[in-house]
Design goal:
This protein has 327 residues and is α/β, with parallel strands linked by helices. Helix content is 25%, strand content 19%. It has 11 helices and 14 strands. This is Phospholipase. It comes from Streptomyces sp. SID7958.
């Protein structure tokens, strides 16, 4: 049996077995190698079968503009701008938005003392423009969201052509029928999926939910592992457990529903984005996904989120995962 979850716990309690409380032995789960199947042909593979390279804190790159207060800005998570990330094959973008008099602005921790920060609508416009010129591509945006609903709505309204590409899984029967094929998404032109880490409950008091204007509540559509592998240097923690497991929330990585499999966001980065450490970690991405995170979630990662995506060749891990499906 699994021991009760301690108050305030942020990960599942240890697995213990025995005849009673005085006769317990701790079991440690070891990595496993599950049986997989070949990836279906391009016209038949569904969104949840595909893996996408994802840039953690994609805006924190020091190229497009300021992203953090002094000293914090000495540690960018990426070193290439959003347009270059798109051309390099990044298809998932984790963005932090903070509310200022200018709207929803991309900043890490705070926008105070940040020089030339970038507005959310600017980076979304870059993505929409890319999708216009690449009609066979699909992009996902993850918002760490610190803005009011109406501020976010107004920000999205500034993006030319957003409605043409915005994908609404809440309106297309995904929960009943599963995710569409990539070919179907391409045919409809709906190739931009936007998530917020806010919850429906947190928006209810304001009377407007974000999905009414096309921003999906991430916890309703995805599962996600805990975000940190440890500090910026030294040994890394490869254990894979849900980010959303605390005293008030239980969303296990294994969560599924009849006819519906949540997308799996696999985080693979540390507290401090040191370039050399990220390069080493990224070189081990496929191994951790196969031996630790896939068995823990019983599904293949849809998004592999990394710092310094240009180090350690995480694109090779994405390519490898895109050769098979998980049962």
């Amino acid at each position: 049996a699994v021991a009760p979850k301690p108050a305030g716990a942020v990960h599942p309690a240890p697995l213990t077995v025995g005849a009673g409380p005085d006769d317990l032995a701790t079991w440690y789960l070891t990595p496993a190698g599950p049986v997989t199947a070949p990836m279906p042909p391009p016209d038949r593979r569904t969104l949840d079968q595909v893996t996408f390279l994802t840039a953690h804190n994609a805006y924190a790159n020091g190229v497009d503009g300021g992203f953090a207060p002094p000293f914090v800005n000495l540690f960018p998570n990426q070193t290439r701008g959003i347009e270059r990330q798109l051309s390099d094959g990044v298809r998932g973008f984790m963005l932090d938005i903070h509310q200022t008099p200018d709207g929803a602005i991309l900043c890490h921790n705070s926008c105070t003392l940040v020089s030339r920060p970038v507005a959310l609508w600017v980076d979304l416009q870059r993505i929409v423009d890319f999708l216009r010129s690449h009609p066979d591509q699909f992009v996902t945006v993850f918002l760490e969201d610190y803005v009011d609903q109406e501020v976010l709505r107004a920000e999205l309204a500034r993006v030319d052509g957003l409605a043409d590409v915005l994908y609404r899984p809440d309106r297309t029967g995904v929960r009943e029928n599963g995710w569409p094929t990539m070919a179907e998404l391409t045919a409809t032109g709906k190739r931009l999926l936007i998530f917020t880490d806010r919850t429906r409950a947190s928006d209810a008091a304001g009377g407007v939910t974000r999905d009414t204007f096309g921003v999906m509540y991430q916890r309703e559509w995805t599962v996600e592992n805990y975000w940190s592998m440890g500090s910026g240097a030294g040994a890394s923690d490869w254990s894979c457990y849900s980010r959303w497991y605390d005293a008030g929330t239980t969303l296990p990585l294994t969560r599924t529903e009849p006819g519906f499999r949540p997308l799996f966001v696999m985080n693979h980065f540390r507290d401090v984005p040191l370039t050399s450490t990220a390069g080493t970690d990224n070189g081990k991405l496929a191994d951790r996904a196969r031996r630790f995170c896939e068995p823990a979630a019983r599904k293949k990662p849809t998004y592999l989120a990394v710092d310094h995506y240009d180090r350690g060749n995480p694109a090779a891990a994405v390519a490898e995962l895109n050769t098979y499906t998980y049962p």
